[in-house]
Fold this sequence. Notes:
The complex is a heterodimer.
Chain A: H1 3-19, E1 30-31, E2 55-57, H2 58-68, H3 70-73, H4 109-119, H5 130-143, E3 152-154, E4 169-171
Antiparallel strand pairs in A: 2-3
Chain B: E1 5-6, E2 20-22, E3 26-27, H1 29-34, H2 36-42, H3 46-49, E4 87-90, E5 98-101, E6 119-121, E7 135-139, E8 145-147, H4 149-152, E9 158-165, H5 183-187, E10 190-199, H6 200-207, E11 215-220, E12 227-231, H7 232-235, E13 240-245, E14 248-249, E15 259-261, E16 274-280, E17 295-296, E18 302-304, E19 312-317, E20 328-337, E21 343-349, E22 357-358, E23 360-362, E24 371-379, E25 384-392, H8 401-408, E26 421-424, E27 430-433
Parallel strand pairs in B: 7-16
Antiparallel strand pairs in B: 1-23, 2-3, 3-24, 4-5, 5-6, 7-8, 9-10, 10-13, 11-12, 11-16, 13-14, 13-15, 17-18, 19-20, 20-24, 21-22, 21-25, 23-24, 25-26, 26-27
Amino acid sequence: xxxxxxxxxxxxxxxxxxxxxxxxxxxxxxxxxxxxxxxxxxxxxxxxxxxxxxxxxxxxxxxxxxxxxxxxxxxxxxxxxxxxxxxxxxxxxxxxxxxxxxxxxxxxxxxxxxxxxxxxxxxxxxxxxxxxxxxxxxxxxxxxxxxxxxxxxxxxxxxxxxxxxxxxxxxxxxxx
Amino acid sequence: xxxxxxxxxxxxxxxxxxxxxxxxxxxxxxxxxxxxxxxxxxxxxxxxxxxxxxxxxxxxxxxxxxxxxxxxxxxxxxxxxxxxxxxxxxxxxxxxxxxxxxxxxxxxxxxxxxxxxxxxxxxxxxxxxxxxxxxxxxxxxxxxxxxxxxxxxxxxxxxxxxxxxxxxxxxxxxxxxxxxxxxxxxxxxxxxxxxxxxxxxxxxxxxxxxxxxxxxxxxxxxxxxxxxxxxxxxxxxxxxxxxxxxxxxxxxxxxxxxxxxxxxxxxxxxxxxxxxxxxxxxxxxxxxxxxxxxxxxxxxxxxxxxxxxxxxxxxxxxxxxxxxxxxxxxxxxxxxxxxxxxxxxxxxxxxxxxxxxxxxxxxxxxxxxxxxxxxxxxxxxxxxxxxxxxxxxxxxxxxxxxxxxxxxxxxxxxxxxxxxxxxxxxxxxxxxxxx
Lengths: 176, 435
């Protein structure tokens, strides 16, 4: 290497470091088309981004819940042996023990769809159809008195559901 | 001594009674280090001051006479150390959800052996074929990219020794009465390792982050598809896609073949079995950042995105289950850590917080890592209340129990970081007390 190129290399390193630019890497990522990520792209954001096509009502969700969910979450979402999905609205301020359920605590209905799609039923996740997911979501929201029995949940209506504890969260900052 | 120690204590010694640094028997360790004679002569216990006539004649044991075990491919602890193991605390009725806890009271130094690193799984440990594993970065990027393990293994490696602590570590300390459990049982969701891998910043740079992106959602390849949102500013600061844990490939229970390591942040942001990162404008509000891992205050409002594990320390020896043997000189030992940076100081008290003295800190003291502290103590055989109080380099001081509950209430299980107290009885028993 000539003196000139050493100088150039040194200068480049210094510039990169001082500008906070990422280090030189082999860049071995393989480009993938957005469509090819689709099967894995299961995140649903609160504004509805990521919700799939399909729809369902509480009425349709009742039977699915009884068959696939009630064994762990109790009849009509009352809980036991695992988390209750219903009730507790108004219990969050002290001194009583807060009852944190989908209805009383969760700030976004989209989170319920996202979570059930990725993680439920426990022993066979990612097995429910989109219509079944919308119907189950509608059912649990209806059990909490948040939507009507015949309200249709889909990619347009679900993000518009206003959860009772929507304004109940404060982003942490040091000193809180 | 294999590690260099630094004294954090001020030069408090003067002529005369120089060795006491705080009430109820806390001593300046430098005297101890300088002269073994102090140790031998200072003991009040009969057993140690008696002439050395009590020991039996030495024997030739069987293992001294015949060849031992053959070579082995992967070493295991001595059969006599079987009690040094994780304890399992699964969700009732399940084997794949719950936690296993690190035996902090039986370990020394600062590094957790890989087989003892705590576990928290939401749907068991997936059995991932590393050749089939893929990690994708997509969303608000110029070019979505897929990485194989083989590809990431060829990048420049970066190592970071850092603790991981579950946000729910110490949850039982919010209870009204002190639980009588070992450190492992109620604080064992804490471990520390040297993690080596690729800087996430380098991979994000390769994909080209859209200026609109402020967050990312990280997701695991486990059956629960565990996912958390992380601010982009943190992701490009010091986050690793880790491939190695204490020099070997990650253990399956800690994310094999790759996981996020998010130094200082609550444990579940260190997403295991990492398969996907999506760049987004805002947080995805996943189940584990809304319905769980949020702190409901007395007002009814809940703190969300409580990311840093705040300044904390814990005496691990003596502690519940590790009783005092006899009066005399002993070492109080423990660990301190902060998600904000380095530990600057750990103070120890033997009189329930009436007086404190600075402990020795084992070097090197690393940012967002466990720091071992030690304090010399002459136990006089009477009651004592032991406490440790950590201060980090940003000035955060570990709170008292009363202060923590006053600010955040006690109707949560997350982010306990207040002072823990051990009550030593005149019989040498050690109980967990609120003091």
